[in-house]
Request: fold
Amino acid sequence: MRFIVALITLTAFASSAWSQGHQPNVIYLMADELAYYELSHMGNFRIKTPNIDRFASEGIRFTNALAASPVCAPLRCNLMTGKHAGNASVRANDGGTPLRADEVTIATLLKEQGYATGGFGKWGCGGRDSTGVPEKHGFDVFFGYYDQVHAHSFYPPYLIRNSEEVPLPGNNGGRKGQTYAQYTIFEEAVQFIRENSKKPFFCYLPFTPPHGMFDVPADEPAWKLYQKEAWMKDPKVPQDAKNYAVMVSMLDRQLGEIMDLIKELRLEQNTVIFFTGDNGGQDRFKSKDYPRGYFGPNVCPSTGVEFRGGKGNLYQGGLKIPFLVRWPGHVTAGQVSDHLFYQPDVLPTLSEICGARIPSDVDGISIAPTLLGEGMTGRPQEEHFMFYWEYGQQVAVRQKNWKAIQPKRDSDWELYDLEKDPSEGRDMAKYQPAILARLTEFAEQSHRPARPGVFLDPDRVRHQRDRQAKFGFSTQAIEAAQRKKMPKKK
Reply:
């Protein structure tokens, strides 16, 4: 148990004199599956992100930020609770597994400090009528999707506000409709910021784009960025790929509008904004010419070095995420940091920055000294002794540059030196048995059986309704959804 005790000790006293009496606003924007190399400041020559690029130049960019899970629901639990995958209540990616009723989240802690707390986008930590709904975990308001299947459609018949349905005119699920959900979600977020501009606020923006059905309105202003791009006119390029690029640029536009809003409200010096992805990217729109996807989400454009795997596995492609922070007057502009951290570290970081308590059972370590400087926080940046992941049958552990991974239950462990082998192509397990033993021992100590929350409605009526809303409620749509679930005839 010595590893785990050491980790808890590190996080338990992660506070600073600076945080006392300071209550900055926090905006945390997390794009769904936006990959490390899908931003133009990272060299992507197809996707245009001018506002994100400016944001990066005005703050700090991290090169070693990692997801806590390679899929949606678990990592949102890790992020919100500060716990790694071996201690988290949500480990399945079924869209409805809930947090337990007694679990503390970032919103819980900041609300205790008098913050207005709002979430806008995709929750993923408990379906309706469960113990995991956001309004029972510190959020004054949450507007968007509770279930991630619901979130696949940008034209659902309704969205959810604090467990109640908000109709979207002209929509019935699927890929067409009158009201584009992301616009409505963004408008609600802007309204929340305006309404709470006179007091400290936490605005959590787990936006769905560019994940889900790749749909974006024909009059979305971001299309103008691509008017002169030849590939946009190439019939060989799938329309969904073109839509995907515009969806990323739509997020870029909305981030720019948030930055303008904060400036208009004269809150720049007192508002820290995070822009990040949720998990590693998928090699979407693959072809013979583009085996790692049309946009190369896991391939460095300048060197061709690849991250192995992608969403859904614990190789680097499933874990590497973009992570940018901007806070004029507090975070020095133009920084690039190689500090190694992952999503459980966000809770203690925000708690420290905002003067909130840090629960003793979290696995995260605050990165405030890296953001603000050790002189400001009064202590050096602490580092994880080791990192731990699990998902399904997969387990992984990392200590500095050494990473051990067990791709399947009962399979042999693999070992990689990420400094020399970032693509995880040369298994060092048989050459470094002592290092492997040290990492696998930590893995054994880090796992505890999952204790998820429960549904208060055993029939999950409203939760199932939300999942069906992806397809709409016509007879044809319901039958199509049912056929999709039926086993194929042999």
In short: Residues 1-15 have pLDDT under 50 and may be disordered. Residues 114 and 200 are 7 Å apart (CA to CA). Residues 2-385+453-468 form a domain with the Alkaline Phosphatase, subunit A fold (CATH 3.40.720.10). The first strand starts at residue 25 and ends at 31.
